[in-house]
C-alpha cells in the first residue's frame, strides 16, 4: 500500500514539475550598468490549438519595463515555440530579484523562474578626466526649410508689384480721350487752360511758365501751319510765318506777328537772361499768345469739307489712336510693376547670397536632390533574412541578385536577398543584402569586405580607396565598416564622378548581412542622410 502511495506522489510531482517547466525563463545578462537594458526572455512550446496569454506589465518587481517586444513564433513540426521578451531597467544600483510571472496557457496558470540581477554604478574618475566649463547655448540655424517664410516673401514682393501697378495707373489722371484732340486749336486751347490751373506764376516758377506757354504756341504753329516751329529760333520762326502767310494766303496783320515775336523774345529773356517780368506783363503775354493762336486759326484758309467716308475714316483713325495710347499706358504700367517685382526679387536673392552663401540659395530655390531626400518622409522597414531593420528616405526595392553578382559568387551562396534604392551613377545609392552560404565556414569580415569591393569594381567603381574599422550598432552588435572614396564610371555619357562610400558587414550563423551607401563626394546633405541611416541599423537574429 505504501509503495503505491509513493508511486502516486512521484507521478504527481513529476506532473507538476513538467507543468512548471513548460515555460522557460532566461536573461541576456545578470549584471548591467545603471539605466542599461536587461532582456528577459520567456519561451514556451505549445500545440497549434493552444492559447497563450503573456501579461502586460509596467514593472516586474523593482525593475521598470521599458519595452515589451512582439511575440516571435517558430514552428517546430506540429508544435509552436512562442518567444516573448521584456526590456527591463533600473536607475538605482544594487541587487534585485526578477520575480516569477504568471503565464496563462489554455487558461491554466504557469509560473516563470525568478532571476537575480545586479545593477552597478558607472565609475566617474574626475582626477584622470579633464573637466570643462558649461558651454553657452548655441543657436541652431533653422535652415530654409521654413517654406512659409519664403512664401511670405514672394507674396510681399507680388503685393508691392500690384501696388506699384495700381499707383501708376492712378497717377495717370488724364483720360486718353482728353489727350487726343480733333484739331490743333482744340489742343492749344485745352493746354492753355491746363497751364493756368498749374498756378506756376503764383509758385514763382516764371521760367517754367514761359517755357510751357511758348511750347504751346510753337506746337500749334507746327501742327496747323506745318512749320518746324519747335526746332526754329525766334527769328527763324517769325520769318517762316510771314512766308507761310504769303504762300497760303493767310490774312495776318503785322500786329499779330509782332505780338507773337514780342512774347517769344520775352520768353527767351526769361529763360536765358533770367529776366523777371511783372505779373501784369505775364498776364498780357498769355493773352497775346491766346489771341495769336485764335487769329492764326481764323487766318488759315478753310478746307473743303471732307466727304462722309473721309469723316468716318478720320474718326476711325482717331479711335485707333486712342486705343494705341491706352495700350501704351497699360504696357508702361505693367513694365513698371514687373520691373519692381524683378528688382525686389533680385535684391532679396542678393541679400541671401551675401548672408547665407550662393550654395544655400541655389539648393533652396533651384532645389537639391539629396536635400529633398533628407527633408522628405523617411521609411523604417525590415529587409532580408536574417533581417536588417533600417530607416531610409525611400523604400528599398527588391532586386534579382543573379543580375547583379557574378556567377562565381552566386555559386557559393545558398540564399540571398538584395534590396536597393538609386544607382551607382545617381546622386544617392543604398543597398541592403543578406545571404547564407552553402558550405559551413567561419566568415572573415575583412575578406568579405574585399570581396564586396571587387563586386563594386566590376559594377563600375574605379580607383577605390578603402579604410577599415570596427563598427557597433546601437544594440552593441559588432561588425566591420569599410569607407573611402572611389571614381564611378558612367557608361552612358562616358563620364566619371568622384564618390564617397560606406560599407557595413555583419555575420550570423553562416550568414552575412551587408549595408552599402554611396553618394557624390562633398554632398553635405548626403552625409547627413548616411549618418541617420547608419544610426538606425538594427539586426535580427538568424532563423533556420
Quick recap:
With 544 residues, the protein is α+β, with helices and mostly antiparallel strands.
Q: Which helices and strands appear, and what pairs or packs with what?
A:
Blueprint: H1 2-20, E1 23-27, E2 31-33, E3 38-47, E4 52-53, E5 59-60, E6 63-68, E7 72-76, E8 79-89, E9 94-98, E10 102-105, E11 108-111, E12 115-120, H2 147-171, H3 176-179, H4 184-198, H5 206-224, H6 234-247, H7 254-272, H8 279-299, H9 308-356, H10 358-365, H11 369-375, E13 379-383, E14 388-392, E15 397-399, H12 407-410, E16 413-421, E17 428-437, H13 445-458, E18 461-472, E19 478-490, E20 495-508, E21 511-520, H14 524-535, E22 538-539
Parallel strand pairs: 2-12
Antiparallel strand pairs: 1-3, 3-8, 4-10, 5-6, 6-8, 7-8, 9-12, 10-11, 13-14, 14-22, 15-16, 16-17, 17-21, 18-19, 19-20, 20-21
Descriptive report:
The protein is elongated, with a radius of gyration of 48 Å. The protein is built from 14 helices and 22 strands. Strand 10 (about 100-105) and strand 11 form a beta hairpin. The longest helix is centred in the middle third of the chain and has 49 residues, at about 310-355. The strands form 5 sheets. It has a 7-stranded antiparallel β-sheet, with helices on both faces. Strands 1, 3, 5, 6, 7 and 8 form a 6-stranded antiparallel β-sheet that branches. Helix 4 packs antiparallel against helix 8, helix 5 (about 205-225) runs parallel beside helix 8 and helix 11 runs parallel beside helix 14 (about 525-535). Residues about 1-20 and about 175-180 have low confidence and may be disordered. The chain is of the alpha+beta class. It has helices spanning about 1-20, 145-170, 175-180, 185-200, 205-225, 235-245, 255-270, 280-300, 310-355, 360-365, 370-375, 405-410, 445-460, 525-535; strands at about 25, 30-35, 40-45, 50-55, 60, 65-70, 70-75, 80-90, 95-100, 100-105, 110, 115-120, 380-385, 390, 395-400, 415-420, 430-435, 460-470, 480-490, 495-510, 510-520, 540. It has 3 domains: about 20-120, Immunoglobulin-like (Sandwich); about 180-300; about 370-540, Mog1/PsbP, alpha/beta/alpha sandwich (Protein Transport Mog1p, Chain A), CATH 3.40.1000.
Amino acid at each position: 500500500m505504501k509503495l503505491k502511495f509513493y508511486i502516486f506522489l512521484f507521478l504527481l510531482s513529476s506532473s507538476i514539475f513538467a507543468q512548471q517547466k513548460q515555460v522557460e525563463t532566461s536573461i541576456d545578462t545578470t549584471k548591467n550598468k545603471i539605466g542599461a537594458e536587461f532582456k528577459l526572455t520567456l519561451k514556451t512550446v505549445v500545440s497549434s490549438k493552444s492559447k497563450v496569454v503573456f501579461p502586460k506589465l509596467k514593472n516586474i518587481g523593482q525593475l521598470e519595463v521599458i519595452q515589451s517586444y512582439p511575440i516571435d513564433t517558430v514552428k517546430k513540426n506540429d508544435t509552436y515555440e512562442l518567444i516573448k521578451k521584456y526590456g527591463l531597467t533600473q536607475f538605482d544600483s544594487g541587487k534585485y530579484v526578477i520575480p516569477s510571472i504568471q503565464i496563462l496557457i489554455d487558461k491554466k496558470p504557469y509560473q516563470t523562474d525568478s532571476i537575480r540581477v545586479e545593477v552597478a554604478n558607472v565609475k566617474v574618475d574626475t582626477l584622470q578626466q579633464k573637466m570643462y566649463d558649461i558651454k553657452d547655448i548655441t543657436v541652431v540655424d533653422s535652415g530654409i526649410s521654413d517654406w512659409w517664410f519664403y512664401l511670405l516673401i514672394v507674396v510681399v514682393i507680388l503685393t508691392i508689384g500690384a501696388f506699384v501697378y495700381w499707383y501708376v495707373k492712378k497717377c495717370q489722371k488724364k483720360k486718353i480721350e482728353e489727350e487726343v484732340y480733333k484739331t490743333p486749336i482744340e489742343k492749344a486751347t485745352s493746354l492753355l487752360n491746363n497751364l493756368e490751373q498749374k498756378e506756376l506764376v503764383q509758385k514763382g516758377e516764371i521760367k517754367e511758365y514761359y517755357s510751357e506757354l511758348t511750347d504751346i504756341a510753337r506746337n500749334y504753329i507746327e501742327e496747323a501751319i506745318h512749320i518746324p516751329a519747335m526746332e526754329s529760333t525766334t527769328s527763324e520762326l517769325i520769318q517762316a510765318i510771314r512766308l507761310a502767310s504769303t504762300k497760303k494766303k493767310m490774312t495776318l496783320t503785322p500786329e499779330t506777328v509782332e505780338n507773337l515775336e514780342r512774347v517769344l523774345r520775352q520768353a527767351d529773356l526769361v529763360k536765358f537772361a533770367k529776366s523777371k517780368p511783372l505779373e501784369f506783363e505775364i498776364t498780357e503775354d498769355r493773352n497775346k499768345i491766346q489771341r495769336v493762336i485764335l487769329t492764326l486759326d481764323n487766318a488759315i484758309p478753310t478746307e473743303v469739307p471732307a466727304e462722309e467716308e473721309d469723316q468716318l475714316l478720320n474718326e476711325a483713325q482717331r479711335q485707333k489712336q486712342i486705343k494705341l495710347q491706352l495700350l501704351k499706358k497699360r504696357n508702361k504700367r505693367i513694365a513698371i510693376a514687373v520691373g519692381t517685382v524683378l528688382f525686389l526679387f533680385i535684391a532679396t536673392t542678393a541679400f541671401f547670397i551675401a548672408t547665407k552663401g550662393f550654395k544655400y540659395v541655389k539648393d533652396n530655390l533651384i532645389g537639391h536632390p539629396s536635400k529633398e531626400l533628407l527633408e522628405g518622409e523617411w521609411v523604417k522597414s525590415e529587409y532580408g533574412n536574417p533581417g536588417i531593420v533600417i530607416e531610409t528616405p525611400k523604400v528599398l526595392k527588391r532586386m534579382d541578385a543573379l543580375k547583379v553578382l557574378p556567377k562565381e559568387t552566386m555559386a557559393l551562396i545558398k540564399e540571398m536577398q538584395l534590396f536597393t534604392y538609386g544607382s551607382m551613377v545617381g546622386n544617392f545609392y543604398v543597398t541592403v543584402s543578406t545571404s547564407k552560404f552553402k558550405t559551413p565556414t567561419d566568415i572573415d569580415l575583412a575578406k568579405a569586405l574585399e570581396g564586396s569591393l571587387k563586386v563594386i569594381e566590376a559594377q563600375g567603381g574605379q580607383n577605390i580607396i578603402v579604410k577599415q574599422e570596427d563598427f557597433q550598432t546601437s544594440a552593441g552588435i559588432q561588425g566591420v565598416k569599410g569607407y573611402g572614396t572611389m571614381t564611378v564610371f558612367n557608361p552612358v555619357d562616358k563620364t566619371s564622378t568622384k564618390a564617397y562610400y560606406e560599407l557595413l558587414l555583419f555575420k550570423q550563423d553562416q550568414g552575412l548581412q551587408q549595408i552599402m551607401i554611396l553618394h557624390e563626394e562633398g554632398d553635405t546633405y548626403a552625409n547627413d542622410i548616411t549618418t541617420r541611416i547608419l544610426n538606425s541599423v538594427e539586426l535580427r537574429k538568424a532563423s533556420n
